[in-house]
């Protein structure tokens, strides 16, 4: 690749496809394939996020699959068409991320109150309003963030996705790696949690150290998350889990004795480690997550002000009579303003969203603020480290206090608060995703206006389908259960209840905030540590394994940098497939769990664990075999190619 077409941060940057060159971009094929991938990756990430509390970017696997279909199967050569596919496809993951962090709280409350569940229409409208505002609010920021700060803000996922698209010829062969991961993870997940040939969760109590335990969920998605996040992020999460499970739980056991301490309802001496985690550690972790999110926002305030000022100046300087190059064409400011106003009025007037005019105004204010925050932060730290849940917590704390002070309390106030938080959370998630996608388009030479329309299409199809996925998972297992703990959503529920009813265990919350602040002081990223403290150690331990493998691949000796990069990239594609495969089978198993078979259901009929099981040893062996497949499609694939 010559210098003119490279991804370098020069002042005279030129996109891969020149502005005066017209190529197929916004086609029926790209729209259909993008919508299909939006549904698939949206469902997979919804399951992953509800189980683990994290989602991963779908841009790169969507781009690779697109190239495999369009270039190899359809024999068409258009990098811009592939770019539209990943733009639409990645919107599904972002809508899912915003929805699962908040909306399950609404399900849990309505069940407790005997009101059933939120309607599919309500979920779709909340997701649609948040998604549309996320796209529209980001558009005025594009020139300030994507163009003028090219080379300053790296936008990791957006740049990496551009590199994948620019690889071009390798797209077809690399697509097979994604599909291999998807197929292997699907089979593994079905055997582990469908047939239940071996337990997917294993744990051991530490002898002589009362109520201290270690464990691991031996599942492909967790291995994939750890590999994609890398050793550092995985290590911070695992460190948080160690503090919770190896230090705090035994200490509470030692000093608690036979006491019954709120919010627990039983003597501490009768609780096992899981009981202490559920009654106490969760609240300490919640305080740490809330503190981490707020600290991240405070540190970003100078950047937010700078970004907002530049964006407004860029738009005020534009002359409507001037014609712009294809690569500089956005949706018009009139469209952005009119569309945003229309959505905000709809939020106020449509009865399915239980907010007043004050709530709609709060959404507009906080929405644009956090869209700016998210768009800037993902440019610095990437989408995977974007503190969306922290933004939602900050929103919920403020809006719940405001609604309570205006007399909107009880069920109405709680549902109103979580509805506002849901829209804000989705706005932040989509604004970050749109930024990454526009960065990819800037590098390859796409038309921003067409990408922005693609984002809107992706948001619409995802908003329509995410409700069905949430209904399915809730019907099968119930939010807050062991299978789908919905960690962020249960945290949001605690925050709103604590403000409205004044019943939060503030001592535990402040203890967690104190731990998070101490971690920040010594220079450790707070949010991954806090999430590790909040979640069971079983999740962090498996994620840590993926991080260790990534560390090994990155630090091998006697391997050229080119080969090393190729092998690591193949590992990322394979583990993206692992995540998608487990997520899809998780959704399928949820369907099986609600299909009646006599007095039971199809899920229980398939379960053979009572008759035969490989046990924990079998779990370890199968997980090791899964790890070997990761080596097979990364470093061993390269070795095989060299010897051919």
UniProtKB/TrEMBL annotation:
Does the keyword Lipid metabolism feature in the UniProt annotation? no
Query: Which residue spans traverse the membrane?
Result: 26-48, 54-74, 86-108, 120-139, 175-192, 212-229, 236-257, 277-298, 336-366, 386-403, 415-432, 452-473, 506-527, 533-553, 573-597, 617-635
GO molecular function terms noted in the UniProt entry: oligopeptide transmembrane transporter activity
Q: Cellular component GO terms, alphabetically? A: membrane
Primary location group: membrane
**Known Pfam families for this protein?**
OPT
Q: Classify the source by domain of life.
A: Bacteria
Keywords assigned by UniProt, alphabetized: Membrane, Transmembrane, Transmembrane helix, Transport
- Tell whether Membrane is among the UniProt keywords: yes
- InterPro entries for the chain: Oligopep_transpt (IPR004814), OPT (IPR004813), YSL-like (IPR045035)
Q: How does it sit in the membrane?
A: Multi-pass membrane protein
| Localisation | Membrane
Tell me the PANTHER family matching this sequence: OLIGOPEPTIDE TRANSPORTER YGL114W-RELATED
Spell out the protein name for this chain. Oligopeptide transporter, OPT family
Name the source organism. Romboutsia maritimum
Q: What is the lineage of its organism?
A: Bacteria, Bacillati, Bacillota, Clostridia, Peptostreptococcales
């Amino acid at each position: 690749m010559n210098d003119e077409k490279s991804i370098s941060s020069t002042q005279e940057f030129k996109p891969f496809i020149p502005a005066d060159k017209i190529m197929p971009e916004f086609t029926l094929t790209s729209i259909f394939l993008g919508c299909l991938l939006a549904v698939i990756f949206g469902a997979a990430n919804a399951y992953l996020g509800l189980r683990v509390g994290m989602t991963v970017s779908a841009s790169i696997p969507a781009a690779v699959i697109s190239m495999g279909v369009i270039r190899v199967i359809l024999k068409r050569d258009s990098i811009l068409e592939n770019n539209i596919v990943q733009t639409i496809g990645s919107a599904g993951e972002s809508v899912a991320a915003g929805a699962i962090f908040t909306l399950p709280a609404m399900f849990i409350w309505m069940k407790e109150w005997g009101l059933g569940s939120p309607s599919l229409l309500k979920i779709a409208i909340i997701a649609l309003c948040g998604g549309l505002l996320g796209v529209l609010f980001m558009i005025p920021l594009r020139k300030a963030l994507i163009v003028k700060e090219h080379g300053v803000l790296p936008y990791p996922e957006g740049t990496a996705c551009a590199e994948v698209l620019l690889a071009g010829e390798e797209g077809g062969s690399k697509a097979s790696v994604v599909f291999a991961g998807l197929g292997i993870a699907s089979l593994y997940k079905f055997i582990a949690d469908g047939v239940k040939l071996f337990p997917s969760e294993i744990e051991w109590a530490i002898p002589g150290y009362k109520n201290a335990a270690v464990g691991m969920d031996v599942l492909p998605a967790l291995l994939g998350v750890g590999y994609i996040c890398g050793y550092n992020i995985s290590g911070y999460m695992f460190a948080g889990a160690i503090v919770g499970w190896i230090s705090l739980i035994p200490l509470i056991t030692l000093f608690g004795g036979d006491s019954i301490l709120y919010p627990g309802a039983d003597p501490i001496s009768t609780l096992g480690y899981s009981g202490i985690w559920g009654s106490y550690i969760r609240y300490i972790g919640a305080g740490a997550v809330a503190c981490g999110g707020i600290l991240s926002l405070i540190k970003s305030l100078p950047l937010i002000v700078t970004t907002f000022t530049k964006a407004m100046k860029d738009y005020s300087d534009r002359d409507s009579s001037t014609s712009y190059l294809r690569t500089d064409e956005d949706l018009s400011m009139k469209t952005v303003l009119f569309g945003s106003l229309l959505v905000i009025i709809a939020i106020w007037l449509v009865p399915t969203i239980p907010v007043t005019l004050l709530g709609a105004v709060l959404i507009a204010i906080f929405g644009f603020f956090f869209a700016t925050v998210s768009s800037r932060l993902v440019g610095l730290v990437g989408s995977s480290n974007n503190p969306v849940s922290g933004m939602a917590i900050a929103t919920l704390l403020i809006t719940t206090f405001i609604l309570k002070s205006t007399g909107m309390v009880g069920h109405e106030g709680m549902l109103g608060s979580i509805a506002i938080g849901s829209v804000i959370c989705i706005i932040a998630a989509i604004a970050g995703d749109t930024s990454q996608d526009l960065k990819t388009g800037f590098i390859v030479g796409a038309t921003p206006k067409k990408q922005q329309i693609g984002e809107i299409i992706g948001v619409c199809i995802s908003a329509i389908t995410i409700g069905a996925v949430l209904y399915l998972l809730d019907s099968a297992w119930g939010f807050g259960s062991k299978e789908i703990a919905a960690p962020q959503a249960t945290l949001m529920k605690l925050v709103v209840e604590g403000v409205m009813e004044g019943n939060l265990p503030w001592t535990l919350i402040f203890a967690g905030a104190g731990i998070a602040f101490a971690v920040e002081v010594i220079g450790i990223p707070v949010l991954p540590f806090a999430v590790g403290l909040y979640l069971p150690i079983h999740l962090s331990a498996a994620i840590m394994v993926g991080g260790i493998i990534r560390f090994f691949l990155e630090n091998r000796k006697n391997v050229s940098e080119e080969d090393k990069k190729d092998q690591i990239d193949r590992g990322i594609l394979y583990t993206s497939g692992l995540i998608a495969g487990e997520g899809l089978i998780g959704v399928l198993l949820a369907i099986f769990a609600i299909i009646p078979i006599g007095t039971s259901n199809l899920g229980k009929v398939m379960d053979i664990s009572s008759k035969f099981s490989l046990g924990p040893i079998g779990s370890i062996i199968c997980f090791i075999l899964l790890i070997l497949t990761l080596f097979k499609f990364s470093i061993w694939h390269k070795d095989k190619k060299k010897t051919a």
